[in-house]
Structure prediction request, 324 residues.
Amino acid sequence: MQVKHGLDVWAEPVEGAPGVTVRWLWSESDGAPSFALRLFEVDPGASTPYHTHAHEHEVYILSGQALLRGNSQARTLVPGDTVLVLPYDEHQFQNTGSELLRFLCSIPSLGKELELTVQVSLYPLREMDLAPTIGKALEIFHQQGLEVAPGTMSSLISGDMRSIFRALQRAFEIATDKGDAVMVATFSNACPIANEASTKHPSFQAIGQVKNEFSEPTSPEVLRASDSKIIIQPDYSDGLMGLKARDMVLVVFHFHRSEGYNLRQHPRGDRSRPRRGVFSLRSPKRPNPIGITEVQILEIKDNILTVRGLDALDGTPVLDLKPA
Prediction:
């Protein structure tokens, strides 16, 4: 068994939610195999992002007063109240009191699972036109971060087992809204769709990676105000010739932790702001999860660049550098 004090755990800022922090009390990094326990702290007047996701979680209010918003309803919460948020429930916790709001939140651990490829066919039996239902199913597959190769009679989807089963369940639920439906799925762990997709989608080789102190989602403003290092792979270090301190460069990188996307999103997940097209936002949840940020070089030493202005997390793969 392990014991630690919750307030000794680092309070990480929640991206897109000023005044909100989360402490990962127990998670897979501590050896917890099935669940993660988190402590959220919300300043007066602040709110968690208005969002939805594919897993349930359980919430217990420790202190303060909250307003729970979601699914066209709102509930006032006080210490001792507990909440079950089911998969795909829209939800947001707003601190409506004058004191700090604290609540515990437990979620399933979302560790690496068996990778599968599924050939899936969907037949709504009472619909003459299958396209709308199939289109909704494909959107669900994309939102779950799955690789999708649509076909005339069936589609191939590829990803981790948990995401695939959740996506299939959600797609089948939508298909049966108007009556009976048949879903046929063939599973394999040996036939990735990359062979087919590679002829349509280019692949890239990382030239380096980001090193900084931010391993979990952090507000872009905090990231850009901090120094980061870009470690270029030795094979590409000759490509740094001509760059020097004070130069401004564009860093092209991969949002490697982003899963799925919506073509219309609330900026930074703020439900109070109108939805905009993803191509007008800097959201990491996009069809091609690629980021571009202008930074200033502070120092170059061998194959390591120290830069300021980079809004990328520790370990982010760097795809390219270009003069600004």
